Amino acid sequence: MRIVIADDESLVRISLTSMIAEMEGTWELAGEATNGAELLELIRREKPDIVLVDIRMPLLNGLQAMEKGSIISPNTYWIIVSGYSDFSYVQEALKRGAVDYLLKPVSPQDLEEALIKSSQEKQKRQLLLGKRFENELVSLVHGLTDVHMLPDDSMIPHVRFQIVMIYNDGSHCDVGKMVGRSPYLDKLRRSMDAYSASGVYGVFILMPMGGAAFITAWNQADHCRSNTLVQQLLTNLKEAVNQDGNNRIAITAIFSEECENCNVLLERLDELQAWGPLRAVNGINCCSSAAELAKLSSKEGLEELAAILLRLNQCYKEKDYMTYAKTVIDLERWSHKHEESCLSTLKSTICDFIDVGLDCKLDHTQTFSLWKDGLSRHGEQLLSSGEGIGCSLVDMSIAYIEQKYMQDISITQVAQELNVTPNYLSTLFRKKTGTTFIKYVTHIRMLKSKELLALPNAQVQKVSEQMGYLSTRHFTKLFKEHTGCYPSDYRKQLMQQETQTKEQIKSY
Questions:
Q1: Cα diameter, the chain
Q2: Cβ atoms within 10 Å of 478's Cβ, excluding its own
Q3: Which one Pfam family would you cite for this protein (predicted)?
Q4: Helix axes 422-433, 437-453, angle to 10 degrees
Q5: pLDDT-based confidence at 89, cuts 50/70/90?
Q6: Is the peptide bond before 151 cis (omega within 30 degrees of 0)?
Q7: How many CA atoms lie within 13 A of 22 on its CB side?
Q8: pTM exceeds 0.90, yes or no
Q9: What does the pLDDT average to over 123-143?
Q10: Which domains does the chain have, with CATH numbers?
């Protein structure tokens, strides 16, 4: 916590500085002021976390400085240090937002308690602001709102961003969900509380095209100091990626440049997701810049090759032998169209990806034709593994539902995709899940509906349409059956909670 001391008596400033230096904790003196005008300039430049200010000072008194300084730095907390115990002073100071009122001479214990109290209040407020910021950013990224629909007091138009796209690949890796279970990334997520107290926010967002976006944001007006914290945070993230990766899981991180506003943020997100598949030919367990991936994308045929490798990985995990076999043929056709000599430097990294993604070891010195034979033999194990296609049909159906739940899907449609009869798939689905296909689809839609209704500016009719229901009335009926209340009532409950949160923020 960065502290500014404002008092026209040098002995008082020396005494307060000495006491703070002897305290345990992360207290840092950001500057001293001898009058109200100097204090305002110091606040404008430093944006301190806490100000210790005297009531009686030249040019501007402490109360006047607090009033003007709170406009300059709304997130600064104020502690009055005065030789006057008049109740009217105390009352006015607390009315203007002072956290505490200390009488001179200040004891080290009273000062430390006041600083700790201010620190705790600031952290609580920042956590509430951070949660609200996260909700608004998720809504913006997923296209459920736009910048013009954000509340007037939203932080999003006033911050800079940086993006790290994180991908997980591996034969036993649940892509996307593993980000939430990673011990190192989980530790990083918890550490964000400390960063948010300094005005730096970090948000994990699962992306519809796969992977997760870790977005850091900081106030444009405090760019220099916050950017230092952001770089520390991203260094920690790189370490987490390196520690999490192992011989069975590949973790790839792609860093963007700074984004000066939310419109640039959305453009960079689209670019990073478009370049994401290139991780299959770029090397596993590494951190790359967006510029490096952009350069790689300019090489002819690499994007097509990367898409084939990722499709092989997905088919192997889903035990979809038919599509797997077709994709191996696509790989062979690709090799016939391109000179292997120009890709000799990439074959080792491709072998590493196939080893992790498919549990299949290939020799990087061999030709693509020999790779095709090895991949074909490896894929045939899916038929004789004891699980085969049949035992994974339900898992594939569930994956299909989670991808297409907003469309008008039926068991017949899914059965056609999987090349089985609808009756067989229906019986298998009910046996494994304990419910019918239709009820499962409805259940998923209701869960997704609750997530959308929790986002700012969500509308019941729009949510209904996004869930694939042409009739809002039918959607409302199903929602009540599953949740016990109507969507509008659910929204009211969320709005009441939001109001309570705002009131809590104001109280801090």
A1: 90
A2: 19
A3: Response_reg
A4: 60
A5: confident
A6: no
A7: 10
A8: no
A9: 85
A10: 2-125 (3.40.50.2300), 155-298 (3.30.70), 300-385 (no CATH), 389-504 (1.10.10.60)
